[in-house]
């Protein structure tokens, strides 16, 4: 984590002008967003000798315009290709609630910083779950906005057709205020009592740990989410997300791999090289499935406004825990942290991660709404916080 206080900020805030709705709020920035005067490493030493950014990324600029104070550049998986924030170049980010466990990734530095009270808001990116996974494991609020609603300008790309950006926060109200600053507009009020809430079943109702199952059941009951919606072909949707991510991720790096392959984390390099070998027919099929699955997602909202699903199978795995049980088989813990987040990636719908109020380690739930209906997500999130059903877990 690199600490930074902009030299002109104190002079700026003393001009006697309204400093904005986020006045004085410290925030951290995932190190794939440009910050003027700093090198954007995207978690890799491959970019360590690049020239410093000449201007702030759009989201960073909006935060500063809203009065927030950028104080840190935060750790991440190299080039955002991972779910764990295990970084061969800059070290691993540990879970503030249990240092022997993962913080999640790839935006783990921003999430852990909020949970550890280093700053109140963190900026992250979410391609396959990189906001939702660490928000759940660290016990804070996180938002993957509707794809395209928040600008990705000035952020280092991972999978351009899937990349989405968004904030973490230590309260539902703080998350909403941050989102409004990033959008440069206020959200309309929503009658929470009128919201129709259903629970995702099938794929999203299987493989949960006992604590996660209890937490989701409790939250569903409190929300009156008795209806169950099942999405079709979820396993194929997740596979399509893998294929699109691997192929587009590889396309971003082929030039550098030809000259700097040794500078990459070997695990990341090998995934990128494998993506470069995918046949075009498979990539085409993955994009076709993406469009089909998006249509099925729209159909799922015919009789509901918000869908509820677990964010992860369970609590944060330990660093020395290479496998977890899925479907009766032991599989890679890190590769399957996105079990419930990756399929939803394809549709581009907004998803808000809720830190459920539970004993033990943090557990998060996903609230999913139609594109552009972040207002509904925030209305429900604030009610959950007010009713004591959800709260950020801070140390």
Number of helices, where a helix is a run of at least 4 consecutive DSSP H or I residues: 11
Radius of gyration: 20 Å
CATH superfamily: Amidase signature (AS) domain
What helical percentage do the residues reach?
25-40%
Which structural class is indicated by helix and strand composition?
alpha/beta
Tell me the strand percentage band.
15-25%
- Mean pLDDT figure: 95
Strands, count: 15
CATH topology category name: Amidase signature (AS) enzymes
- Uncertain residue segments: 6-12
The profile of the biggest β sheet is: 11 strands, mixed
SSE blueprint and pairings:
Layout: E1 2-3, H1 9-13, E2 26-30, H2 58-65, E3 69-74, E4 94-95, E5 98-102, H3 108-115, E6 121-126, H4 132-138, E7 141-144, E8 164-169, H5 172-183, E9 197-200, H6 210-223, E10 228-229, H7 234-260, H8 266-276, H9 280-300, E11 306-310, E12 323-326, E13 329-332, H10 342-345, E14 351-355, E15 364-369, H11 374-386
Parallel strand pairs: 2-3, 2-6, 9-10, 9-11
Antiparallel strand pairs: 1-3, 4-5, 6-8, 7-8, 7-14, 11-15, 12-13, 14-15
Task: Please characterize this protein's 3D structure.
Helix content is 33%, strand content 17%. The chain is of the alpha/beta class. The two termini are 18 Å apart. Helix 6 (210-223) links the parallel strand 9 and strand 10. The strands form three sheets. Strands 1-3-2-6-8-7-14-15-11-9-10 form an eleven-stranded mixed beta sheet, sandwiched between helices. Helix 5 (172-183) runs antiparallel to helix 11 (374-386). The longest helix has 27 residues, at 234-260. The chain has a single domain, classed as Amidase signature (AS) enzymes, CATH 3.90.1300.10. It contains eleven helices and 15 strands. Residues 6-12 have low confidence and may be disordered.
